[in-house]
Amino acid sequence: MADRARTFVCGRTYDLRANTIRQIDEQTEGTPVSEADDEKVGALLPDGNRTEMLEELELAQIGCKPFDLQGFRESHLSPVLWSSVLRNYGVRNLINLLAEIAPTPCDARFIEPHEPKMTGFVFKIQANMDPHHRDRIAFMRVVSGKLTRGMKARLSRTGKTISLRTPQFFFAQDRSLVEEAYAGDVVGIPNHGTLRIGDTLTEGEKVIFRGVPSFAPEILHHVSLKDAMKAKKMKEALQQLAEEGVVQASTPHDGSPALVGVVGALQLDVLVERMKTEYGLPIAFEPARCEACRWVSSSDHAAFDKFMDKNRSAMAADLDDAPVFMATSAFMLNYEKERNPDIKFTDVKDYQQEMVA
Description:
disordered N terminus; 357 residues; disordered C terminus; eight-stranded antiparallel β-sheet; Elongation Factor Tu (Ef-tu), domain 3; 3 domains; 23% helix; Rossmann fold; 8 helices; alpha+beta; 24 strands; six-stranded antiparallel β-sheet; Alpha-Beta Plaits
């Protein structure tokens, strides 16, 4: 809750913090008022609604906690807005609020859409857009500048240059080659695992947009395959679906079957169906002896190597070869945390925290 809450007033929205009221057809920041009982507010209300509106606003002001930006960015509280896209109530308020309180997507500097140099952000990977070719499309939103077909772009995660030979526009099942795209456009870039969700492409500048974080899965299972001859194909399929974000795939160091992790059980059903229909691989799941997993790291290399050697049977590597500790229970996870204060256990991973120059 937050004092950014807004309420409907017969086709108007009232901003509790700024004490402004906006009519449905206003394009400005709204009409400033002294308080909710201002005559300007009353003049916009039908007869009989004034008392009820004042009571509801007073209740909202009492019940809403003061807005704290740091608390919002740490996920301790959330702003509340009442809006309706269908009736165009509060939409502008929502957009303005997001622009005001959301963290900047680029730590280096603020990037304007009208800048001449192209920058873009990969927000989605889709495998098997064309089942006949097993293609993978990275969907990128152009943030600034102009994208032209055949141009060279710098992949900030690796520092390498890639060629955008065949960028494409998609409309339902139809696709067309992109000759030019501008800020705000979404283009599809065919690739074979080069691009990941959260990647930044630029015309050479060393900037990076904050990547989409990965969260530690809550459900863990081993994947079993009836036909052992298709193990290599299953590994490739799991890698592609993990790049897409369907599941999180890890390879245990002890040689046990591949491990998949999901946040919700529905993701397992999606994985089974896609493996069967798109890759021709009927799979099953086996219980994993681990119940919790965390990414591990340390600035003390000696302590980290010692931890890895001691827990080799409980270690795995994720899609990016980052080390993952697999705990048999939440109790064991907390136990290892207490015994290894030099090791950092994290349940949120952003593989772009450090940009490769």
